[in-house]
Amino acid sequence: MRVSTRMIYGGLSNSLMAQSHRVMQAERRVVTGQRVLRPSDDAAAAGRAIHLNSRLSDIAQYRSNTDALIAGLAATDNAINDIALALREARGLALAGANDTKAESQRHLMAEQVDKLISQVSHYAEARYAGQYLFSGTAVRTAPLTPTGNAAAPFAYAGNDGRRTLEVADGVAVAGSVTGRSVFNFDGAGAPDAPDLFTTLAGIRDDLLRGDAASLSARLDDVDALLENLNRHRGEIGQTIQRLELNKTRLAEQEEVLNELLGETTGVDLAAAIIDYQTQQTVYQATVALAARVDQPGLFEFLRG
Pick from 125, 140, 209, 260: most CB atoms within 10 A? Predict the structure, then answer.
């Protein structure tokens, strides 16, 4: 069979283009460290990579949710701690006011202090994290308290009883909030035998103004019940944060394993990839050299045509 010049040129042209493609592929593997960048590279490996990347995306979301929950709960704990400190200060004033030896002027000054504590606690009640109210349940854009106009019971609860949750693992959702109804004991939600926190503080203030030592002494039990309620909430928050920290560790471990599997599925042995790249370069250069030995003008005309 006679081999025509056109057949020779065609074979050389195909060889050059094919080898150039192999060089580019080898170079891509060295630069990216990846063996599979599209399904056509390895359909089975590409399918596994899609699944692994999907799981990694889920874990990234779970980690983000876990971090958000921890931060929100920490902010809630700080706010409850500030409220507890104010309530303890009010308890000290009530205890001092129960002493019949206090002069009226002293008791009035103490009442003013309690009034300031009511303002402080109402401010703490409106604490926010990421622009959302912490104590309004799921009504995160609604302030948790509404003034009543009643000096003896100055605030009512304006939030709801929902708890905000986020998913931190497959099928596992964690509540990242507490309700103001329970924290401030509206409707006896946290301490059934005590009034709400603001009514209790207002009662201490009014007892001081009246000089009612017996009533002040009786209110100490309510304050203690409210403090116990606050401590209970802080304990629950602390336990939840601990569980979330453990979850972060588990997610990090899962992420590490999945990344290793992904590397094994789509990655390359870099040393071997470099050798392959050098080999493909050598073959390409040899093909170019072979092409140079034939009638170059004719070949170039063929490639152009």
Answer: 125
